[in-house]
Write a structure and sequence with these properties.
Blueprint lengths: L3 H15 L3 H8 L3 H10 L4 H10 L13 H7 L9 E2 L9 E2 L10 E12 L13 E8 H6 L10 E7 L12 E5 L9 E7 L2 E9 L5 E4 L8 E3 L7 E10 L3 E2 L1
Parallel strand pairs: 3-5
Antiparallel strand pairs: 1-2, 3-4, 5-6, 6-11, 7-8, 7-11, 8-9, 9-10, 11-12
Helix pairs in contact: 1-3, 2-3
Length: 251
């Protein structure tokens, strides 16, 4: 992912390619014109706003324009194999919503998609090379979610992915299905996150340190913690927070 002045230059070239003025861009995003000027000059922009910007320019700028591979882009924008509509609620969330293949007439139940996504609980793995699919739907009672004591951004942001590796052994095991909240795209508290770093997809515990650095922790004591600091912090992109192992062991 581009950062700094490289990102600013990418925003400016996309703006020119789309043929919109900085004033119009500011109006479309509900910000003051100086904010847009700051994006272009320094490349400093909130990550959630950046995702909106990439979607806004998607007709003139491919993921590679932003320094992203198509594989990472597909994880951010999930699609399904059955022509399900993918919609976006700009007012409530910057997360691509997944319309389930099955709709429950009983509102006391919710359908959670199990995505064809495996993230590394080890040294990192490449994101999927194909369009991400919903491999099954899992229906649970809303009261069951409440009983787990989970805090999540929105029910529609919940999904299930699989973990691979043994570095998180003790918290969950290789192959465990994990309930994640795709609406959490920044580190709000020390927790376990799904994130990309230098293009690889990880599941690790992230802990904030004094000075802004992050500690990437493997719960398996065999693996030492890794400190992420400096310019490397700009290459960490939070995709989701892990809420629960799908054997009802709360994290």
């Amino acid at each position: 992912m581009l950062t700094g002045k490289d990102l600013g230059a990418a925003i400016e070239s996309a703006r020119l390619a789309k043929g919109v003025s900085k004033k119009k861009l500011a109006e479309d995003f509900g910000v003051a014109p100086p904010s847009v000027q700051g994006w272009v000059k320094t490349g400093r922009i909130d990550k959630s706003k950046l995702m909106e910007l990439m979607d806004y320019f998607s007709d003139v700028a491919k993921p590679s324009h932003w320094g992203l591979s198509d594989r990472v882009s597909e994880f951010l924008s999930v699609s399904s194999p059955t022509d399900m509509d993918v919609v976006r609620d700009e007012k409530e969330s910057n997360v691509i919503a997944i319309n389930s293949r099955r709709k429950n007439s009983d509102t006391s139940f919710v359908t959670i998609p199990h995505l064809d996504v495996t993230a590394s609980m080890g040294p990192g793995c490449a994101p999927p090379e194909h369009t991400i699919e919903v491999i099954r739907d899992i229906t649970v009672h809303v009261d069951w979610l409440k009983c787990q004591g989970l805090n999540y951004s929105k029910i529609d942001n919940l999904a299930i992915i699989d973990g691979d590796g043994d570095s998180m052994e003790g918290t969950f095991r290789n192959g465990d299905a994990l309930l994640v909240d795709r609406g959490i795209t920044e580190i709000r508290t020390d927790a376990i996150y799904v994130f990309t770093l230098d293009g690889d997809l990880f599941i690790k515990r992230l802990q904030r340190m004094t000075g802004g650095a992050l500690r990437m922790i493997s719960d398996n004591p065999v693996y030492p913690a890794i400190v992420i600091e400096g310019e490397q912090l700009d290459r960490v992109h939070i995709q989701a927070r892990v809420l629960l192992v799908w054997n009802a062991r709360k994290l």
